Amino acid sequence: xxxxxxxxxxxxxxxxxxxxxxxxxxxxxxxxxxxxxxxxxxxxxxxxxxxxxxxxxxxxxxxxxxxxxxxxxxxxxxxxxxxxxxxxxxxxxxxxxxxxxxxxxxxxxxxxxxxxxxxxxxxxxxxxxxxxxxxxxxxxxxxxxxxxxxxxxxxxxxxxxxxxxxxxxxxxxxxxxxxxxxxxxxxxxxxxxxxxxxxxxxxxxxxxxxxxxxxxxxxxxxxxxxxxxxxxxxxxxxxxxxxxxxxxxxxxxxxxxxxxxxxxxxxxxxxxxxxxxxxxxxxxxxxxxxxxxxxxxxxxxxxxxxxxxxxxxxxxx
Length: 317
Description:
Blueprint: H1 30-61, H2 77-100, E1 109-112, E2 120-124, H3 134-162, E3 164-167, H4 168-171, E4 173-177, H5 181-191, E5 198-201, H6 204-219, H7 227-236, H8 240-257, H9 261-272, H10 288-304, E6 310-314
Antiparallel strand pairs: 1-2, 3-5, 4-6
Helix pairs in contact: 1-2, 2-3, 2-6, 3-5, 3-6, 3-7, 3-10, 6-10, 7-8, 8-9
């Protein structure tokens, strides 16, 4: 059996199967596989820790104190399982696509957050080798948001269908979540027009799906080394830095007019745009299916975009 960690395996896309056999001098030995095993243990521990913190966050969304009532942990499982499924599919979309194109990448690193209301700071993978060409970069970048969106969409449909319409007077004080174009369509199709002085109180599954859509939007921002930045780089090359600079300026303006959190993302854009990893063959052109995937990612970004993601509101009696 050929080891997938061999420097020459898997072969680049299009490599003939009757090509010369890989050089087995690079096969990992017992000594070199020890760090790999420790790394896998770290990935597993981070995943379990994030599962615990998201279960606790789910209990908070159910109105429970996870420290006072740990016996009711199952009440937090719907939120945790939904959010973890979205994040896992997002990262595995990157991972499996990168492995398909012969890239050396790590398993996902999940980041737990003991502070509610989300329960996690997300997840990421590390690319240890450059993409073969711009097509490979585009597919790896787009695979994550598309895979995560495919999980978040049915979860949001379920969340809207099972959530409760309540009077504003029952809410009193809370958060008003942004409704991108996608959620406006879902709301009209599943719930219908709301009566005056009422609001939809999303259940924990709907909240997890909303956070998944928010993560998808942030990742598809076309700047730097975010997924959207990789896609733009695959399309136009080094000129992508001009898109990043224009977006950073736009985010600063949106921070003044709409939501202060865009200032943080403007700083992130400046930080992650200092240098974009190069591809091995930058001259390879993109075919029509690759451009179609880029258009699909753009459509998902438009559907998920929220100029004002969240705000604190108080409904006066």
